[in-house]
Every structure is written in structure tokens, then in C-alpha cells.
Write a structure and sequence with these properties.
The protein has 258 residues and is α/β, with parallel strands linked by helices. Helix content is 45%, strand content 17%. The chain is built from ten helices and ten strands. A hairpin with a 2-residue loop joins strand 1 and strand 2.
Length: 258
């Protein structure tokens, strides 16, 4: 189905692997287009409960955008490139199902931005993160200046953005950029363990957590009002009735996403 991606669905967990290892999984327009198709599948397929996003091979998650596609672009074409990437990554960030980035090596430039658009990140011990765009005379254009600042704070983010320095997995953990660092052989199994736990919870409530947490960073929204609305809406679901009844009956709930 895809030329640049490998996808699989197992027990509710949809794994998307960017498969250009000879190019260190760099994001060209074909990858972005196919990634958009895979994300649409996540939104539409009820059998998908959560998503792992990773890169093929032991060296790289995504080593950046395909710079050859930038050469010769003018101002308006540059803006269009940024908007296309931002719109795609917003679809990940705002997805009603959790996306976990399993960073198995280099996550640089657009790769770091892709990882940051996921709801959280797990890194292998050989992972490296960076936004080296200033080396090319540009800045991150797929949300990197915003999400890096949100995740690690303004001072650390600006240092990385302006210096183009790379940080290793241990530093990324210290900064709060990733949730866990594990040996590469345990990377996917760690994500699966976490997602199996999340998948056992009420899907509508899980989606509501994403919506409410994302509202923190949207200046056009009142996050507390969003929380109030989402909280209230949960009371209209069968899952809420099942969850509260199961709790009182001291049994495990059986959530249906309804």
C-alpha cells in the first residue's frame, strides 16, 4: 500500500515505520504524503486504539527533511512547505488516539519535529535529538520552535535552536523531552507495554485527555472550560456508566468506546 512506510496492526496498536533506511528515513514529499494517508487511517479505523511511530533500521528515527527539495524555493514556496508540514503534525498532535514516538537513533530537524508532535516519546540509548536548521540558513518550520519550547523551556530550547547542537538520549530525558530511555532492543516492547495499559482504558476519556491537555498551549482556548466540557460530555457515554458501575462492583470495566 505504501512505498515509504511499513504499517501493521496488532491488538489495537498500529505501528507506522518510516522505511527509507538508506536515506536515514529523511522526510521527502512522498513520505509526508503517505504519512498523511496513514494518519487518516488512524482517525477512521475503529480497530486502531493507539499508534507507535518509528523509523527503519538501527541508526535513525528520521534524520530530517530532504534538503534537496528546498533548493531553489522562493519565500512563498518556503511558507507553503512549512504549512504543509505543520498541518500534518497538527493532525498527529490532535489525534483522538495516542501517538508514541519510538526514537531509534537520529531525530534531527523535521525528525525531531515529528517526534515532538507525538503525545510522548521513548528513546533508545543511541538516540540523538537536534534542530540543526540554522546550519542551512533557516529555522525549524514544522512546529519545532514552538513544541521544543513547550517541552523543555525557553532557555534550553533557544540554546539548541541557535547553536544547532545535538543532545543525547540521557540529556533528552533530563530535559523532559522523552519519557524513558531504554536499550534499543527494548524500545518497541516498552511502548507496547504502555499502550496496552492505555488501551485498556475508556477510549473517549483517553481522547478527552488529549484534547484538554493540548488546550494548555492554545491561546485561543480556555483550557479549564475545555476540561469542564469534556468532563461533562463523558457523563453522556456508556463507558462512564460502565466504569463507575465496575468500580462499585469491584470488577474490571469492559469499555466499548461508546
Amino acid at each position: 500500500m505504501y512505498n515509504t512506510l511499513i504499517t501493521s496492526l496488532d491488538n489495537g496498536i498500529f505501528t507506522i515505520t518510516i522505511n527509507r533506511p538508506d536515506k536515514l528515513n529523511a522526510l521527502n514529499q512522498e513520505v509526508l504524503r503517505e504519512l498523511g494517508m496513514a494518519i487518516d487511517e488512524v482517525y477512521q479505523n475503529k480497530d486502531i486504539r493507539s499508534v507507535i511511530l518509528t523509523g527503519a533500521g538501527p541508526k535513525s528515527f528520521v534524520a530530517g527533511a530532504d534538503i534537496s527539495e528546498f533548493v531553489g524555493a522562493n519565500i512563498n514556496e518556503g511558507k507553503a512547505l512549512a504549512k504543509k508540514g505543520q498541518d500534518l503534525f497538527f493532525k498527529i498532535e490532535n489525534a483522538p488516539k495516542p501517538f508514541v514516538a519510538c526514537v531509534n537513533g537520529f531525530a534531527l530537524g523535521g525528525g525531531c519535529e515529528l517526534a515532538m508532535s507525538c503525545h510522548f516519546r521513548i528513546a533508545s540509548e543511541n538516540a540523538r535529538f537536534g534542530q540543526p536548521e540554522v546550519n542551512l540558513g533557516i529555522i525549524p518550520g514544522y512546529g519545532g520552535t514552538q513544541r521544543l519550547t513547550q517541552l523543555i523551556g525557553k532557555g534550553r530550547a533557544l540554546e539548541l535552536l541557535m547553536s544547532a547542537a545535538m543532545i543525547d538520549a540521557a540529556t533528552a530525558l533530563q530535559y523532559g523531552l522523552v519519557n524513558y530511555v531504554v536499550p534499543q532492543s527494548e524500545l518497541l516492547s516498552k511502548a507496547i507495554t504502555i499502550l496496552e495499559l492505555i488501551n485498556s482504558k475508556a477510549p473517549i476519556a483517553v481522547a478527552g485527555c488529549i484534547t484538554a491537555a493540548n488546550a494548555v498551549f492554545d491561546e485561543t482556548l480556555n483550557g479549564f472550560q475545555i476540561e469542564e466540557t469534556v468532563f461533562g460530555n463523558c457523563f453522556g457515554t456508556s463507558d462512564m456508566k460502565e466504569g463507575t458501575t465496575a468500580f462499585l462492583e469491584k470488577r474490571k470495566p469492559l469499555f466499548k468506546g461508546e
